Amino acid sequence: MKIETFFAFFTLVLGAAISVLSWGYGFGSLRRPGPGLYPFFIGVAIAVFSAFILMSESRSRTRKPLLDKEGARTLVLMTLTFSLWIVAMPLLGYVVVTLLATYAFCKIMKLEGWWKPLAVSAGTALFIYALFDYWLYVDLPRGLLG
Amino acid sequence: MEGFALLYSGFVNSLTTVNLVAGFTGALVGTLVGVLPGLGPTATMALILPFTLPYGPTTGLIMLTGVWYGAMYGGSTTSVLVNIPGEAASVVTCLDGYQMCRKGRAGAALALVAAGSFAAGTIGILGLQFFAPVLGNAALSFGPPEFLGFMILAFVLLSNLSAEAPLKGTLMIALGLFLSTIGINPMDSYPRFTFGSETLMLGIDFLPIAVGLFGVSEILSIAVEKYVKPAVSKIRLSELYPDRDELRRSIAPMLRGSILGFFVGLLPGPSTVISTFVAYALEKRISRTPERFGRGAVEGVVAPESANNSAVMGSMIPLLTLGIPFAAPSAILLAGLRMNNVEPGPMLFVTNPDVFWTFIAAMYLGNLMLLVLNLPLVGVFARIAVIRPQILLPIISVISLVGVYSVRNSLFDVWVMIAAGVVGYFLRQWKYPIAPFIIGVVLGPTTENSLRQTLLMFKGDVSLVVDRPLAITLLALAAAFLAYRFMAAFFWKKYAPKVEEGKSL
Questions:
Q1: The pTM is what?
Q2: Could you tell me how far CA B59 lies from the centroid of its own chain?
């Protein structure tokens, strides 16, 4: 099964699940609609449209790889850096983590050398610090710099 | 006279430092976004939205619309100089704009585009200023069935106009409507699809979804692509003057494009993009020398660029008068207003007239700022177009992370943003349109309220809708459009091969 066909299959199952769960919330009647009526019909619509897409996708024979090895590597590393920012931010504080994350993003995107990525990340961290602390007055976790 | 008094007070409000800075910043950021291929106006508006929240609804609206509007101005620069559209609404400009550049008329093309955009913007704002309050007053008499009718017609048109495959567009709307049901339903305080999670009780916030689907997914798409540095033609200030013939040929297309764009802007879907194609086709059709199109015809540059600017203002009408966004950028504007506890719709002109009139006045000023900004700085913007994404994307990535976190101090929101970004990346690859999903999320609660109130009003007897002339007309239009699409698809499949055979004979 192609991965995009799998997505249509996933939304088909999701639509069915939404309808089943909605029925449990109380369908009511057309005269006195319950909390489940609206999502029930949304679920049915999702399932029906997904089924049509699934049928047309299964007829299509075009197959081309979504990502090459290099692209897949970039995608995984970018997602990982985004996720690590969330995990590390409460511990290290937003300034330090922003500096490290920007450096990592620069290197993942192959910004050559070390001083250019360092300059970009230091400048960005400084800008974000000035923006949130001095302009917007938003209190963000400071972690180590606490 | 009351309108002029309100407009005057709008000018007084918009001439505050904070509103002028917001207008200028929005216009500048928008122009930069338009110039830089990749990140579009919707993504930028979503990224900027958290930073506008401390300044209130009017300032936020001015800044965000400035971005949208500025992107329409800036998008033409790279289309003319590099043959790369800065954003989707400037694709058509490449056809004749780049050809003018090759003939050494790039400066004239950009000057005429800036003048055309200014004229179109002014015509669009005038249209908005006069039509919106009238329609807003008319909309005061609309009830839940009429709003439901508008919503259904918008969904039908949107799914058909924004996707290559309408079924995928429709599925995306339905998924957006589903997402909006997660959390406690305010009508009967019943938790739905929360699975006992306290975080989900409040529902899934719009902002992380929008930043993820538009911003992060675009960042991922650009990061994965291989970057090729474009070659940019240099422009001197002295080259910005169009000759007499170019000027003469531009005036009528400028006016036609402005008026056409405004009315196309009223349609659901990517109206700014559609308006450029329609304006180009119209100019080519009525031209006495259609063979010049594609070879550097100034009409082919000015008309589409005027159309996309006035389409922005046209798109504001359904948003401000009905509270229904017909395009993805207006969905972001709606979310921004709601985050500031301002509900656009017919009551806006009664409860918050200052928001509307300050916005109108600020748009006049913003339009002027863009003209002043774009003409002398065109050379600078052209050089910005070649800044590598390896420098820009890391900065935008961390701004999106900190921005989304800062709104509710919620790490859950940041996880939602990343998940939406990765899912959005794959949806783009599989040609699932993102805009209908976002509009589904924003309009979900209103759609459900309208549906349930309509059913309660009619006591379950849906046939009573025939007693509501406007509601039944809207539903009939939606049904007629669906029938047309179905018939067209059926007959196209049936007869298309024969036509091809006929041609080959």
A1: 0.85
A2: 19
